[in-house]
UniProtKB/TrEMBL annotation, chain A:
<feature type="transmembrane region" description="Helical">
    <location>
        <begin position="135"/>
        <end position="153"/>
    </location>
</feature>
<feature type="transmembrane region" description="Helical">
    <location>
        <begin position="221"/>
        <end position="243"/>
    </location>
</feature>
<keyword id="KW-0472">Membrane</keyword>
<keyword id="KW-1133">Transmembrane helix</keyword>
<feature type="transmembrane region" description="Helical">
    <location>
        <begin position="165"/>
        <end position="187"/>
    </location>
</feature>
<dbReference type="Pfam" id="PF12730">
    <property type="entry name" value="ABC2_membrane_4"/>
</dbReference>
<keyword id="KW-0812">Transmembrane</keyword>
<protein>
    <submittedName>
        <fullName>ABC transporter permease</fullName>
    </submittedName>
</protein>
<feature type="transmembrane region" description="Helical">
    <location>
        <begin position="97"/>
        <end position="123"/>
    </location>
</feature>
UniProtKB/TrEMBL annotation, chain B:
<dbReference type="InterPro" id="IPR003439">
    <property type="entry name" value="ABC_transporter-like_ATP-bd"/>
</dbReference>
<dbReference type="GO" id="GO:0005524">
    <property type="term" value="F:ATP binding"/>
</dbReference>
<feature type="domain" description="ABC transporter">
    <location>
        <begin position="5"/>
        <end position="232"/>
    </location>
</feature>
<dbReference type="InterPro" id="IPR017871">
    <property type="entry name" value="ABC_transporter-like_CS"/>
</dbReference>
<protein>
    <submittedName>
        <fullName>ATP-binding cassette domain-containing protein</fullName>
    </submittedName>
</protein>
<dbReference type="InterPro" id="IPR003593">
    <property type="entry name" value="AAA+_ATPase"/>
</dbReference>
<keyword id="KW-0547">Nucleotide-binding</keyword>
<dbReference type="InterPro" id="IPR027417">
    <property type="entry name" value="P-loop_NTPase"/>
</dbReference>
<keyword id="KW-0067">ATP-binding</keyword>
Length: 249, 300
């Protein structure tokens, strides 16, 4: 699709890449740093490290980071000329919305790749953990990218409608706090249903943290992924319908 | 000439304010249509409605006879290139990369992109980041982006904005070249001078209403220049001509809005009263004056 290819081209030299690199590396640094400073050993090796880095990252920074990315990909398109050009071309509202979603999805996937690579690097270089990162965490990394999609769709839609950088980030921040509370207060079903809660739940799979069963089953992974995809489609279609009804500028 | 754009009763209201009011626009195919009006007249809003960027409160837009609305916009926009408000462009990308965006969106070949860049005279700056462009270069990039799809209709909103005299002149020649290839160009401005020499048809907007639509000759003909009466007794003559709305102006008598018959009557009356006349003439006026009068009346 032309819109997707065009949006990917806009990512070239984009300032979004700073977020993609800095946020997960900060999570790795603080998780590893706490471990070193507190002097608490990684009793269960890779699993403990994953818990201290990725679960903490998923509780809050992840959804907020996706919100920031959603605002960044829209920023230049809120300016009068670009906004008018975007909708003044023979491109349907759905194509325009899917193009933006694809851009955020690529950034979110890259952010997860940095996070996973960061965990591996810290595990090897700082803690000298034996063997490779357990394979289940690669699968869970893919799941985390998939559950970022509904947040990306929602945040991209909010950015489009609010035509502002800060306002959708504020909403994303509030959503992240809400998702965190749902997990802390152990609202099981609701935390899985809400995009900002689902990102936290996905990062906990296999760790036994909070409401997690501690085991990785195909059923858990598949149901989370399917709901993530379904909610992404729902949000995307709704956003496109709104864009189609709205006046540009 | 058949009309490429027609509107019927095109109206836009924001809150309680009517900013475009019952516009019946007619843009003939293959012409340059100069869309004029002072700031806030509603030019941009009208152009946005032509492109379905903004939905009319009432009335309709037809492009090549087909109704333009949200359900048909996609098909119709494939034949329209546009530049609305400020020029588009992504500062972190080069000119060439910005063109590639359009190429991907519209599925154009390399030749079409290269031609658009050359037509807009941007080839020397194409590999620089757009954030380093001057306003004129940005404007030209916007034009190149609008041109790339080889549209049948170009809608340009104040393309000369921020250009120096040489740039304005170049823009004029560019627009002329385009119509040579059969493209219809609708170009807006708040300065008559900018479009006067390029436009075949003028549409003058004031307070959201169409004040005039036609050729520049028709515009000239529509406005009646003031009659100036030169006499040795200006005070007495002005008093006598008071019924015709005469005013004293630097020793001559000025009578605005007087037709030929009324002028004859006025002269006969003055002669009858024994006023010594030594000249009756029409004040020559520029098209600019005519335009200013037209839009000033609306502002009152
Ligand atoms: N989204 C909007 N909401 C409310 N009012 C608006 C909106 N867009 C335009 N207007 C109003 O509509 C009127 C016409 O604006 P428009 O931009 O169409 O004028 P213009 O002729 O293009 O002026 P300029 O020469 O300054 O560009 C203005 O009074 C403006 O304030
Ligand atoms: Mg305007």
């Amino acid at each position: 699709m032309g819109s997707v290819r065009a949006e990917l081209l806009k990512l070239k030299r984009s300032s979004s890449w700073a977020v993609v690199v800095a946020l997960p590396l900060a999570a790795v640094a603080s998780g590893a740093g706490n471990t070193v400073l507190a002097g608490e050993p990684l009793t269960d090796g890779w699993h403990t490290l994953w818990m201290r880095v990725v679960v903490v990252y998923g509780l809050f920074p992840l959804a907020t980071g996706v919100a920031v990315l959603g605002s960044l990909v829209w920023r230049a398109d809120h300016r009068g000329g670009n906004r008018n050009a975007l909708m003044g071309r023979p491109v349907s509202a759905l194509e325009a919305v899917v193009g933006k979603l694809a851009a955020v999805a690529v950034l979110a996937a890259a952010m997860q790749a940095v996070l996973t690579a960061g965990v591996v690097a810290a595990g090897k270089a700082v803690f000298g953990l034996p063997g490779p990162l357990p394979g289940q965490y690669l699968l869970i990394s893919v799941l985390i990218v998939v559950v970022c999609l509904p947040v990306a769709a929602l945040q991209s839609g909010l950015s489009m409608l609010m035509e502002s950088f800060a306002a959708p980030v504020a909403v994303g921040l509030a959503g992240s706090v809400g998702g965190l509370l749902l997990v802390l207060l152990r609202f099981d079903a609701v935390s899985l249903a809400v995009p900002y809660g689902l990102t936290a739940r996905a990062t906990q799979v296999g760790t036994g943290a909070f409401m997690d069963a501690g085991t990785v089953t195909v059923g858990t992974l598949a149901s989370m992924a399917v709901w993530a995809l379904v909610s992404t489609v729902l949000v995307t279609v709704a956003t496109a319908a709104l864009l189609d009804r709205r006046d540009a500028g | 000439m058949s009309a490429l754009i027609t509107t019927h009763g095109l109206t836009k209201r924001y809150g309680g304010r009517t900013v475009v009011d019952g516009l019946d626009l007619r843009v003939p195919e293959g012409c340059v249509y100069g869309f004029l009006g002072p700031n806030g007249a509603g030019k941009t809003t009208t152009m946005k409605m032509l492109l379905s960027l903004v939905r009319p409160t009432s009335g309709e837009v037809r492009i090549a006879g087909r109704r333009m609305d949200r359900s048909t916009r996609r098909g119709l926009l494939s034949e329209i290139g546009s530049l609305i408000e400020s020029p588009p462009g992504y500062g972190h990308l080069t000119g060439a990369e910005n063109m590639r965006l359009v190429q991907r969106l519209l599925r154009l070949d390399d030749g079409q992109v290269a031609r658009a860049v050359r037509t807009a005279r941007l080839q020397d700056h194409i590999d620089r980041p757009v954030r380093t462009y001057s306003l004129g270069m940005k404007q030209r990039l916007g034009i190149a982006m609008a041109l790339a799809g080889e549209p049948r209709l170009l809608v340009l909103d104040e393309p000369a904005n921020g250009l120096d005299p040489a740039g304005i002149d170049e823009m004029r020649r560019l627009i002329r070249r385009l119509t040579g290839d059969g493209t219809t160009v609708m170009v807006s401005s708040h300065l008559l001078d900018e479009v006067d020499r390029t436009a075949d048809v003028l549409g003058i907007l004031g307070g959201g209403r169409m004040l005039f639509q036609g050729t520049r000759e028709e515009l000239f003909a529509r406005s009646v220049p003031d009659v100036l009466v030169d006499t040795f007794e200006p005070e007495r003559a002005a008093a006598l001509a008071g019924a015709w709305g005469a005013v004293l102006d630097a020793g001559t008598v000025r009578v605005p809005g007087l037709g030929e018959r009324e002028t004859a009557r006025l002269v006969a009356r003055l002669v009858q009263e024994g006023v010594d006349l030594h000249g009756v003439r029409r004040e020559t006026r520029s098209l600019e004056d005519v335009f200013m009068d037209l839009t000033r009346e609306e502002a009152l």
